[in-house]
């Protein structure tokens, strides 16, 4: 089985490829645990509830027009939904290179943080709406 070293992930936000400004990405698939425990069992029971998927992306901040801050601030401020996609490699979508995508909303944005001498970066969570994150292999 082949191992994957992340070298050329592709990350798009609202149709803009920001791969050259991303240093870390996480695709998080989560469902709420709904307690269904009753008196007939000897332990807890749970079932899957609503999805709570999200993308977490660490951007190397850029204040140029049409770059990181201009895009993210506008998405945060306008409160609109937008597409986010992530691929492990910069090649065609396949079973070995799935495309994770969702319609997201940006509910929190920290445009500037850091210490003297640090690279200016910002970690952003994109909350997936309704159907959550989907996975395509073709």
Question: Which SSEs are present, and which pair or pack?
Answer:
Elements: E1 10-13, E2 16-17, E3 22-28, E4 31-35, E5 46-51, E6 54-60, H1 68-78, E7 82-87, E8 99-106, E9 121-128, E10 134-136
Antiparallel strand pairs: 1-2, 1-7, 3-6, 4-5, 6-9, 7-8, 8-9, 8-10
Low-confidence stretches: none
Main sheet characteristics: 8 strands, antiparallel
Query: Helix and strand string, N-terminal first?
Result: EEEEEEHEEEE
Helix content: under 10%
Radius of gyration: 18 Å
The total number of structural domains is 1
For the residues shown, what is the average pLDDT?
96
Helix vs. strand class:
mainly beta
Distance linking N and C termini: 21 Å
Report on the architecture of this protein.
With 138 residues, the chain is mainly β. The chain has one domain (10-30, 49-136). It is built from 1 helix and 10 strands; from the N terminus they run ββββββαββββ. The protein has one helix at 68-78; strands at residues 10-13, 16-17, 22-28, 31-35, 46-51, 54-60, 82-87, 99-106, 121-128, 134-136. Strands 1, 2, 3, 6, 7, 8, 9 and 10 form an 8-stranded antiparallel beta sheet that branches. The longest helix has 11 residues, at 68-78.
């Amino acid at each position: 089985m082949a191992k994957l070293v992340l070298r050329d992930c592709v990350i798009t936000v609202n149709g803009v490829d920001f791969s050259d400004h991303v240093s870390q990405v996480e695709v998080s698939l989560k469902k709420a645990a709904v307690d269904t425990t009753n008196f007939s069992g000897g332990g807890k029971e749970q079932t899957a509830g609503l999805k709570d998927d999200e993308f977490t992306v660490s951007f190397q901040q850029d204040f140029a027009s049409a770059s990181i801050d201009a895009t993210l601030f506008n998405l945060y401020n306008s409160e609109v939904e937008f597409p986010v996609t992530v691929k492990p490699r910069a090649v065609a979508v396949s079973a070995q290179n799935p495309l994770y995508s969702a319609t997201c909303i940006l509910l929190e944005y920290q445009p500037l943080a850091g210490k003297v001498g640090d690279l200016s970066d910002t970690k952003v969570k994109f909350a997936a709406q309704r159907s959550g994150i989907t996975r395509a292999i073709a």
